[in-house]
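User: I'm writing a short report section on ligand binding and want a predicted complex to refer to. Could you take this sequence and zinc ion and write out the structure as tokens? A short remark afterwards would be nice.
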Amino acid sequence: MDPASGSGSNDPNPDESPSEAPGAALPSRYEAQKRRDWNTFLQYLRNHKPPLTLARCSGAHVIEFLRYLDQFGKTKVHVPGCPHFGCPSPPGPCACPLKQAWGSLDALIGRLRAAYEESGGEPEANPFGARAVRIYLREVKDGQAKARGIPYEKKKRKRPTTVAEVESSGRGGGSAVATTSKTVPSMTRSQMDEKKMVLKTFLSLY
Ligand SMILES: [Zn+2]
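Assistant: Sure. The structure tokens for the complex follow:
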């Protein structure tokens, strides 16, 4: 059994594909996983120092949780100094850390976000839906794409920027985002700043 020696064009890493089935197909399995994730998170809160309650939990805490989970990850993510950086199928081992694959984190956040609201949390206060978390996930996705040699531009699909997403900040400035003109800027200025901050946090992992 050696799937890695196949065509070479496929990514042999099973970690890569979000194994999460669409909720409709396997509801009970999804529910079970969601419950497990939720319990894990609650336990994380209980062990948190300084003490942290769900009510006081912010997007930053959620990001902290995701970073904590990296120690249990199984996806090799090459650091920029590694000779295998950007190489999809490295010829040998290296000492780069294992992390949680972006797809796993993304699916996890989706489940926790649902669990939070099912447990009575207000959607507006949902820390798993925080913009900082979304930006962090995007950073992880882009960073892993680069580190693992997945063509960056190709991978970045041109998906329609939802206006709700752009305007969710509710801050002032140009209220009407240029929705009708050719390209909707994928990021507002404040998002850029936040992104830089998150990137810094992310890079400090290395
Ligand atoms: Zn490496």
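A remark for your report: The pocket of zinc ion is lined by residues 78, 82, 84, 94, 96 (CB under 6 Å). Residues 1-19, 152-156, 161-185, 199-206 have pLDDT under 50 and may be disordered.
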